[in-house]
């Protein structure tokens, strides 16, 4: 469930917005190590914003994830996001902040349920969802029952064991 909420005072057209959404989705998935199918990106352009008393191009971002964050990952994300903001929106790296939230599973909802509640349930789900639940389960250290005929699921269960 890695999520990036990004706000900037730079107006963002539809083409640039689409490029940024795609680039950031790939970036978060790769660096945090989670499937792109769980990544959410929110981009708000043209937001009234001042940084250091100036209304020059600036941005503020928040990265939220259940696990996967830490000093090394946060540094890589900061650097990669700086490149995207500079190349796509001409925002200098000295003109934005990113706040990182490594949240507990009990604070997140998915499919209309608390992820924690879903972890306590018997799951019949496709591979990508199983991998997500297995990862979250590994963080919690609780038992998880998974029903799937997919060999990849069984392989991943073995790896995460």
UniProtKB/TrEMBL annotation:
GO cellular component: extracellular space
GTP-binding as UniProt keyword: no
Enzyme class at the top of the EC tree: isomerase
Catalysed reaction equations from the record: 3-phenylpyruvate = enol-phenylpyruvate; L-dopachrome = 5,6-dihydroxyindole-2-carboxylate
One Pfam short name: MIF
Enzyme Commission numbers on file: 5.3.2.1, 5.3.3.12
InterPro entries listed in its UniProt record: Macrophage_inhib_fac, Tautomerase/MIF_sf
Compartments (UniProt record): Secreted
Natural source organism: Carex littledalei
Segment forming the signal sequence: none
Record carries keyword Secreted: yes
GO MF annotation, one: cytokine activity
Keywords: Cytokine, Isomerase, Membrane, Secreted, Transmembrane, Transmembrane helix
Family: Belongs to the MIF family.
The organism's place on the tree of life at top rank: Eukaryota
Identification of the protein by name: L-dopachrome isomerase
Transmembrane segments: 105-136
